[in-house]
Amino acid sequence: MFVAGFIGQTSFLSAVVTDTSGDLIRARLASTGAVITSSVADRAVNVDDRVQLAVRSEKIETRPTAGGDNVIDARITSFVYVGSAYEYIFQTAAGEIRASSPDAIEGPDVHLYLPPDAIVVLPDESPGLPLVPDPTAVSAG
To answer: Taking CA atoms, which of 67, 70, 137, 141 is between 20 and 30 Å from 38?
Structure first.
């Protein structure tokens, strides 16, 4: 496992809010339908709001297996050793994510854990892409 170390680098993922109960916000990724939980919001959001999930790259971790809360599959597309750490670019179905690690990461396929306290939920003010339908929703008709 590694903890990312890019300071000031943020990755953005498009999503729609599915739940705002308690101190947590759950949002479904526009690309895959995976649900990501955050404990930080820029301002109040409501269910069905389009949002951008701003992921603090220095908090991203790898996990040995797929699945689980806030874990997304990724592929290492680029890396460089910069003297004290490796800087990585990961491609995911949700878009590009940047992170760094003091240790080399075996790949190319990895699983990234996005801690809830490392994700800031921001209102999405762009027109955006159509969202992936919620696979658990029951259609009427």
So the answer is: 137
Closest CA to 3 of 93, 96, 86, 95: 86
Q: Is residue 1 part of a domain?
A: no
Largest CA distance in the chain: 60
**Total domains in the fold of the chain:** 1
Mind giving me the DSSP string for 44-71? ---TT-EEEEEEEGGG-EEESSS-STTE
Condensed to tens digits (0 to 9), the pLDDT of residues 56-70 reads 887 888 888 888 889
Residue 21 placed within a domain: yes
Tell me how far apart the alpha carbons of residues 104 and 85 are, in angstroms, rounded to a whole number. Answer: 8
pTM: 0.78
